[in-house]
Structure formats: C-alpha cells, structure tokens
Amino acid sequence: MPEHVIVTRGLAKLYPRGVGLRPLDLTVERGEIFGFLGPNGAGKTTTIRTLLGFLRPTAGEGEVLGVDVRTRARDLRARVGYLPGELHLDPDRTGAELSDLVGRLRGHLDRAYAHELAARLGLDLTRRVGTLSKGNKQKVGLLLALQGRPDLLILDEPTDGLDPLVQEEVLTILREARAEGRTVFLSSHVLAEVDRIADRVGIIRAGELVTVSGVAEVKARLPHRVEVRFAQPVPEAAFARLSGVRDVRVRGDTLSCVLDGGADALVKALAAHTVLDLRGSEPDLEQAFLSYYQEDHHVA
Amino acid sequence: MWPELLREQVRRDLRGTLWWAFGLALYAAVTWAFYPTIRSSPDIAGFVDRLPAALRAAFGVEDFISPGGYAWARMFSLLLPLTLIIYAVRAGTRAVAGDEQDGRLELLLAQPVTRTELLLGRTLALGANLALLGLTVFLSTAIGARLVDADLPLGRLALATLAVTGLAWTLGALALAVGSATGRPGLASGVAAGVTLASYLDHSLSPQVEALRALRGVSPFWYAIGESPFRGTPHPTGALVLLAAGAVLVLLGAPRFVRRDLR
C-alpha cells in the first residue's frame, strides 16, 4: 500500500463562472486523520468530488491510493468509503436494506460489523429512511461509508446534524480506524471538531488551500481574543499601537484585544501594570476567516 | 455489478409500475366490457359509414365493429401508446437525470460501480418495466376479448402490443439518453415530449399532407402504428426497428455520461 494515500499536484476544477478549486497541492499520508477545513462554499466539496471522480479536473494530477483520479477505476472505489456532504437516500428503504445493497455492490458484506456500528451510533436499522430525522439519516450515511472497513474514508462534514454524544462516538470510531492503519480525510467547517481528532489540517478558502499544518500550529496562528484585568484602570493608549495586537478596547480596569501574531509585545506592555487575571478564548474559525476576508478587502 | 443495479432499480420502481399495470388492465377490461354493445348497435356502424373516408383513416375508425378493428380503434391506435409513452418518458427521465438531480447517483457511484454499468442497469430496468406493462396489456386484452366472445387473433395482438411497447421504449430511451448525456431531467422529458408530439403530428397528417409523407420514415409512430396490425399482412419489422432505435439512442448518450461531471 502506498504511503501517500492522497497526492495532488496542481489539481484544479475551475468553472467558467466562479471558482471551484484553484490548483491544489496536497499530500495525505497513510494512517493519518486529515481535517479539511473551510467555511461553507470554500471548495471543500468540490475538492472531494474531484478526488472521487465525480468531477473532471480542469488541470493538474491527482492520485488516490496510487490510482489516477481521471481513470475513475472501479477497484479503487472498493477501497474508499464516502459520505457525501448532501446525503440523499432512497426514503422507501430501511437502513438494513441500504446497508445490504452497498455490501452486495462492494462484494463484501459484514452484517455483524454493520450491526455493531449501528448500535454504537444509536441507529435503528429497521426503520425506513424517509421516517428518520436528519441526524439519523446522517448515521445511515456514516454506516454505509464505514461498514466495509475501507482503507480510505472520505467524509464530507461527517458530524453534521448529530448530537454531541453521537459526534463523540463518530470521532472514536475514526480514531479506531486510524489505529488500524486506515486513513481518514474529513471536511468540516468547525475547528473544534477537527481540533479534537485531526493530526493535520488544511485550510481552504475561496477555492484555494491557504495552509497545511498541525492543528496546534494552526490554532496558534489564528487570531484569538485576550482579556486582561488589572489592579487599577489603565490608559488605552498604552496598548493601542502594539504590534500583533488589534481591536483594543479598555473599560476601566479591563483590557480586551485580539492577538494576531506574536504575544511578545503585549506581554511586555502588560508587565508595566499589576495584572490580576489573564484569559484567552479559543480561536474561532469563523472569526479567523472573517479576518482573512477583511485582509483581502484592505488589499483591494 | 450491473445485475445488482438492475434488480435494485426494478425493485424500486415496482410499486409504481404495478399501479400502472393495474390501470392498463382496468382500461382493457372496461374497453372490452362495452364491446357487446358496440357490436350489436347498428347506429354506430351507420355513424362510421357516414364519416368522410379521410377522417376514418386518420382516426383509425375504418373498421369499428370487428374485434381487431375495435381493439385498434379503442386502444392501440392512440390512447394506449400515449399512456405507455407517458410512463416510459417519466421512467427514462428519472433513471439517470432525475436521480442525479435528487443527489441519489452519488452514493451508488461511490461504490465499485462504473458509470457504464449504472447506465446499463438503468436501461435494462426501463426495458424490464415496459415489458411488464406490455405483458399486462397483452394478457388483459386477450382475456377481456375472450370474456365477451370476441375472436381476437392472439398473434396479431402480440404484434400490436410489441409495436406500442416498442414505441414507448424508443421515446423512453430518448429521455434516458438525453438525461444521461446532460444530467438535466427537464431537458430530457422536454425533448422526449417534443419529439413525441412532432412525430405524432407527422404520422397523423402525412396521409393528407404530401410534404410530410416523405418524412414519416423518421416518425417512430409510423413504425408502431403506421398501419393496423389487425388487418392485412402483419409486418414485425416496425417493432424491431423501434427496439433497436431505443438501444441506439442510449448508446449515443453513453459516451457523454461516462465523461462528464456529475451534477
């Protein structure tokens, strides 16, 4: 089995109107969980559908499990489990029937494992899909992707619509897959989720991969809000022009600002005062993207 | 894998198809239930005789009284083929383009299934469903005629059924081909409906309009109901042309479907 499970070199899907995916260079290693992160409409689904051969790339190369994505090889798909971002299942079928169908199409049906997965997800396989809630439909989709124990799982927003307990169970199942040496490529627009599970994360915005790195690194680089409480009221001017700090607000003895870059200048400025409390909030991805877009705006 | 896809599709359509079969059987039964009244009514025979010859030919009411003439006029010359065409165009549109628009193809094509196999499975499913409806028409007509002591020749009935089913198959396959080539269900059913209307007009006007007569060879209606299979020498070639035409249409759409983006 190749060590590089997904490799793309300048893989692009450009539409005459609007961008789908700008030339993408990406490598996903065997046995890792790769989080593909970006706001809605950034091109996550376009990337996934190009990798799976549903869309023809307009440029570049892509290989999945060592197979060229343009060939749409049938045997490749036997080794890939896919959860679509917009799941549409036949409403007249029960979960068990769909599970059997997918098993027969893949030439491999492990009913015991399918039932185990359904039990873990809290899914009733005997109910017709049309009668299920959105979250339960999502569980059926997850079951269909997971049940064949594929070498590569490509999951478009896997925890969308699931309640927190089930979300946690899904993440556990994905960690187990990783422990078995299988690879997970998942897209999400929620940083916290990717943070809990992914080894590496790629951030995409407006069809372009902005960065690929470890999750901790990404988080450190993302701007986040810091609140500091002092023993006495402080003058706003003392902090307004620090490098790496913006959106500075002082209310009496409390300073609130957004840390974007190194914290050094801020820490040294704080040292001039008596600090009672210091707290930083988790970086919010949506906010981060907002700031990215604002930067674009300034440049324009 | 395509037999699995065929099985899946036929199974999915089965309930709907059985309702259509039920409706067609009812139509045949009611049609034959009135046959004794028509047969013994001198008024109707006189009415038909008074119609202008061209009108009789155009509406296929030349012979209204014999079992074959009655079956032709009441069922096989217009209403039955149109009903089968409506079914076939709906099913052909849904088979690829409709399902694609509903997002249902993606999950299947994420399995080890090629697009060619999917197309083959769906095309054969359309054929199988139409065969089921054709069989229903044949049996219910044969039984209905028998029950009212109408001596309907079964060989000619079989040919007539094959011809109208073949007509529906051709136009359903057209919808399937356009839908699979473009992924647009509206376009698929629109083109099929347009071709149906245009070729029916061509077929029905060509006895009167000289200019259209040369064109009737391109109208699928000509091959199916150009002349009554219940009279004269039966010609099975028309039905065979239609069966082949449907297959060719799907083949023409296939290369686009295999290459294009899924919508």
Q: What is this structure's SSE topology?
A:
The complex is a heterodimer of chains A (300) and B (263).
Chain A: E1 4-14, E2 19-29, E3 33-37, H1 44-51, E4 59-64, E5 67-68, H2 74-77, E6 80-83, H3 95-105, H4 111-121, H5 134-146, E7 152-156, H6 164-179, E8 183-188, H7 191-197, E9 200-205, E10 208-214, H8 215-221, E11 224-230, H9 237-240, E12 245-251, E13 254-259, H10 264-270, E14 275-280, H11 285-299
Helix pairs in contact in A: 4-5
Chain B: H1 2-33, H2 35-39, H3 42-50, H4 53-59, H5 67-76, H6 79-101, H7 105-109, H8 115-147, H9 154-182, H10 185-205, H11 210-213, H12 220-225, H13 237-259
Question: Can you offer a commentary on this structure?
Answer:
- The complex is a heterodimer of chains A (300) and B (263).
- Chain A contains eleven helices and 14 strands.
- By secondary structure, chain A is of the alpha/beta class.
- Chain A folds into two domains: 4-220, P-loop containing nucleotide triphosphate hydrolases (Rossmann fold), CATH 3.40.50; 223-282, Alpha-Beta Plaits (2-Layer Sandwich).
- In chain A, strand 1 (4-14) and strand 2 form a beta hairpin.
- Chain A is elongated, with a radius of gyration of 23 Å.
- The termini of chain A are far apart.
- In chain B, helix 8 packs antiparallel against helix 13 (237-259).
- Chain B has 13 helices and no strands.
- Helices cover 79% and strands 0% of the residues of chain B.
- By secondary structure, chain B is an all-alpha fold.
- At the A-B interface, helix 2 and helix 3 of A face helix 1 and helix 7 of B.
